Amino acid sequence: MIVGREDLIGRIRKNPLKRALRVDKITLAALEAVLRLHRDPETLAQRLTTLRLLTRTQADLRSLGERLLTPMQQALARHAAVELRDCQSQIGSGSLPVDLLPSVALVVTPSAKGRGSGTAMKSLEARLRKLPVP
Questions:
Q1: What 3-state DSSP class applies to 90?
Q2: Beta bridge partners of residue 83, listed in sequence order
């Protein structure tokens, strides 16, 4: 969707790329569905997965991290230390991703054996891939 001054929109209408870049019926249907969700802001986060994930509290993320911490420590025992740390997560990517959210990270630090040669990381990769759920 393009919004702007009439003279600028007129220039866009004359551009040959306008036809190639126009919105199709499927895109309009998807936009309509998302806009319908926005009509009820009270349930928006429950119904829109991306928003639900972006609005989780740090406490919720910590709880998830704590559930994963022990199984990760057991899976990587003697190969790496695993700990939970507070961090900031970047939202999205692109040319200027500046928004950060309070988050929690599982930090995996390989044991000293093989460090620097890539061996430690290959060993960790192999152990993680062999888990029932890689």
A1: strand
A2: 107
